Amino acid sequence: MKEIEEERKHYVRELKRSNEELNQFAYTASHDLKEPLRMVSTFLTLLDKQNRHKLDAESIKYINFALEGTQRMKVLIDDLLTYSLLGNSGPRIEEVSLDEVLKATLFNLSQNINETGTVVTSEPLPVVQADFGRCVQLFQNLISNGIKFHRSRVVPRISIRAEEKDNNLVVSISDNGIGITKDKTAQVFGVFQRLNPRKEYPGTGIGLATCKKIVEMFGGKIWLTSTPNEGTTFYFSLPLEPSNIFH
Length: 247
Fold this sequence. Notes:
Elements: H1 2-51, H2 57-85, E1 94-97, H3 98-108, H4 110-116, E2 119-122, E3 127-130, H5 132-148, E4 157-165, E5 168-175, H6 207-217, E6 222-227, E7 231-239
Parallel strand pairs: 2-4
Antiparallel strand pairs: 1-3, 4-5, 5-7, 6-7
Helix pairs in contact: 1-2, 3-5, 5-6
């Protein structure tokens, strides 16, 4: 038994060391990748400012395309860093009010909500054993997803509710957006899975993969139902027993 316990402790130490090295690598890689992007963006901006009067419309268009590309790459690097670091250290398990999580989320998304006229409604939400910051990240990704994929000339509406079912708390976030066809529902939680043109709906295709990783970190599941041109409902479950939340 003593040998088994020593082996377990050794494994835990090695895992901790490996995670720390992975975290450092991710931060370093992120910095090293963004630095040349920053330089390219800076010099393109200077080129545009100093020579705009000399450039024709086609050249200005190419510069703008290049600047947009560097911005997309920066967002992609940031999203990849966030995704890669999830799960490298255990979440802080504590009592979390999902009402407070929603309040923080709506504050973070207030500009987007005001610009689109989005209406968000919610039933009273319970207190759970979870990590506040990661719950905000989860809610924010799902709600912003509902705002982004709204139908043209239709006011975005998002409703949130929760219910206990089979020893789990099941939270649903519903929207009245463009919906997802049945043949594509299995793809949405994969990394880089984009179902719509970037020009119409910008993004990196990592948001829902991040949601899946967060939910599974707490021992839960995430799924959806959807009807094209009517809307989508995302569901995620959280175990009610604290001892089962993180494993």
